[in-house]
Predict the 3D structure of the following.
Amino acid sequence: MRSFNGQQKQLLVLLTPATLFLSVFFLGPLLIMAVSSFLEPGLYGGVEWSFYPWSYGRVLGWADGFYEEFDIVYLEILLRSAGLALATVAVTLLLCYPVAFWISRMPSRWKSFCIFMIALPFFSSMIIRLYAWILILRDSGFANQILLSLGIIAEPLDLMYSGTAVILGMVYIFVPFMFLPVYSSVENLDPKLIKASQDLGATPFTTFRRVIFPMTLPGVIAGSILVFIPALGNFVVPSMLGGAKVVMIGNLVEQQFLASRNWPFGATLSMIMILFMLLVVSFYLLKVMKKQHAA
Amino acid sequence: MAVSDPTPDFLKIKNAFRHFATPEGGSVRALDGINLNVASNEFITLLGPSGCGKTTLLNIIAGFERLDSGSILLGGSSLLELPAHQRPVNTVFQSYALFPHLNIGDNVGYGLDVAGVAKKERNRRVSEALEMVGLSGVEKRRPSQLSGGQQQRVALARAIINRPKMLLLDEPLSALDRNLRSKMQIELKNLQSELGICFLFVTHDQEEALTMSDRIVVLNGGKIEQLGTPDEIYHRPASRFVTEFIGESNIFSGRVLESTPEFSRVDLGGAEVICNNPTLSAGEQVSLLIRPEHFHLKAADEPSSSRGLTAVLEQSVFIGRDHQLHCRMGNGQEVSALIRSSFKALQAGQPLTLEYDPAAWHVIPERERVNEVI
Ligand SMILES: Nc1ncnc2c1ncn2[C@@H]1O[C@H](COP(=O)(O)OP(=O)(O)OP(=O)(O)O)[C@@H](O)[C@H]1O
Ligand SMILES: [Mg+2]
């Protein structure tokens, strides 16, 4: 009992800095945001200290109809953002899963090199990298020039300012977040297990379904969550590559704080987005864990 | 599981070659012309030092590795064209390779599940297989919740559930402690005769090979040094390599002084021994083997005979039932002998006469390698 107490004390000491840091820089701001989402917007930004549930009403349907009106567009934007984020998850997963297997079979020198190459974009600014995509995708950009000169198209394609461009940009930005966890689970997969499965009569496809996929699932889950959350809240990519056509929930929040100066409404949208994320992620985790138990 | 009549040449390996390129640019001959026939109910052991090609041969039979040239027939039809998952052989892996995400029942039932065997039949056979390896009622546990020995049994149950025609075992006991190991050796041997299928067993432990096998294949550098029963391998090793690899041995080189149909006299450089070997001819240079346990010390009241080696005791080591004696002969050569411990206390520096039976000497053939040619 005594040693257990000692251990607890030790744990407390070790956890204190992290706890303090998180409470000051994460829980604090979250609390401020939660409170301000229920306050009245000030005239030139800021908040008035009176209870004001109509910001939520604007999004969810109980606006007072006088100062604030319900508009379904906010929910639509939230869902569209979720769709774009999901598409980003799907594309990054499809890209990273096979590549992870490919790289894990390389000689170790090449492995380190490839992982370095995948992490390399982190060394430069995201804005600059997105500008590079603009140069590629715009009407007179590389993509169109190449297609035109090859005679595949007669007119330049409208590549910029579309959902596809936004997904492309987000996939580009978030690939390392998917790759690293997926790769580590693939790398940890014991090749003997694959041999054992084949030895017992499983075809390559069955081996994938019954051994390889379940064994790498933790990496896939981690990668999906790591991509989904920042993709859902992202506003840089849609504002650069999506223009005015593709507004995501992140852009909306940004506008409320910086342009419309309606802080409580920005906070409301953020809170709804956070709750939505929690819901989606916990639903996903529950579903996956159930499946793992059943297997 | 019915035991059918044994087929003598069930597995036929002919002129099997396999080499690997080394990173330094050279190449290793992992299999260098292997010829081997195995009966359908035989317990056959591949024995040899690390890197001699044992795992490579197993991998080729299982289908995880290809052959450069040669052929492998199982029950008369070629194995090499079949992908691993269609071959009627199963493997027990060295580190067991149990699926960590499945419980024991699902691990053992894996082969049946992928074959689409009906639930009821499948469950019956899973408990039957677990019962055969002496491990009932653990279906719901995870591999990590079992001891090494239990995991070993699960791996065995998983490998026999598909009723393979042949079981490949790659050093399955090497991770177990000594006691458990000897227990499992007996159980494996029993399981093999119960199933009546061929076990191709890999080990680099010569004692294990001698205890369990019907026949032993001694491999060295991708070649078969000797193929024979444990008795043949131990008492009539076909080469110096086999002699040194199997058991404790005293090897002498000498010159034949006299050879008659009854006996030969051989000069070991200062000492003379008598051995029963009619094939020697006078003047020939030979290598002779005698095992330490073939020496005995003469009690004081027994009449002395000329069939003894005189040597000085350097060290006597108690190893349980026996004493191991390290002695040195007059010509400086070391001799070791295994003597029952009940014998009177011996002192270092004491001169001894190590008596032998002339029939205990074995002449090691001088040719370097013996490959069975079919
Ligand atoms: N995939 C491979 N690539 C290169 N060389 C290999 C490969 N597999 C085996 N070898 C080489 O072939 C030789 C035989 O290897 P093998 O694994 O069959 O030995 P082994 O008899 O099983 O040894 P151990 O008792 O240590 O398991 C070794 O020299 C090994 O280095
Ligand atoms: Mg091996």
Observations:
- Chain A has a mean pLDDT of 89.
